[in-house]
Amino acid sequence: MRVRTAGLVGNAREEFFRAAHDIKGQAATFGYPLAAEVADSLCRLVEHAPDQQRVPPALIDQHVDGVRAIMRKDARATGNATAQALAIRLRQVADEFLTGENRRGADDLAAVGAPALV
Questions:
Q1: Cα separation of 27 and 67, whole Å?
Q2: What pLDDT, on a 0 to 100 scale, did the predictor assign at position 57?
Q3: What CA–CA distance (Å, rounded) separates 22 from 19?
Q4: CA torsion through residues 112, 49, 44, 42, sign
Q5: Where are the domains of the chain?
Q6: What are the C-alpha distances in Å from 9 to residues 5, 27, 46, 51?
Q7: How far is CA 72 from CA 62, 75, 94, in A?
Q8: pLDDT band with cut points at 50, 70 and 90 for residue 87
Q9: What are the backbone dihedrals phi and psi of residue 5, each rounded to the nearest 5 degrees, phi first?
Q10: What is the mean pLDDT of the chain?
């Protein structure tokens, strides 16, 4: 993963965001709505962090691993308790991070608190 070596900068950031955004938009269509929720949370991290270099690599990895796990375990239904708990927790941790990072920008903070579109 280029983001791991290069960080969330330049082309690596754009390609990574595009991939996460594609998953967010298409996962539900293919029967993985919880993968779409995790990808949405990942998009929010990339989009709303004021300093991309401060986004914890472990948090990015957890989101990527979450999408992989949901698909690997074929957790298609939103009623899958484990996958649902994972999606909810990743969103909570991402929002906590973004709220802390955006505490000075009221506009950014309002966007972070907005509900997911997925």
A1: 9
A2: 93
A3: 5
A4: negative
A5: 2-113
A6: 10, 25, 10, 10
A7: 15, 8, 23
A8: very high
A9: -90, -40
A10: 88
Compute the Cα dihedral for 92, 52, 112, 25 and give only its sign. Answer: negative
- Per DSSP, the residues of the chain read -HHHHH-S-HHHHHHHHHHHHHHHHHTTTTT-HHHHHHHHHHHHHHHH-SSGGGS-HHHHHHHHHHHHHHHHTT--STT-HHHHHHHHHHHHHHHHHHHHHTTT-HHHHHHHHSPP--
Per the structure block, which two tokens stand in for 98? 């973004």
Among 31, 21, 16, residue whose Cα is nearest residue 70: 31
Structure tokens at 59: 């948090």
Amino acid 85 reads A
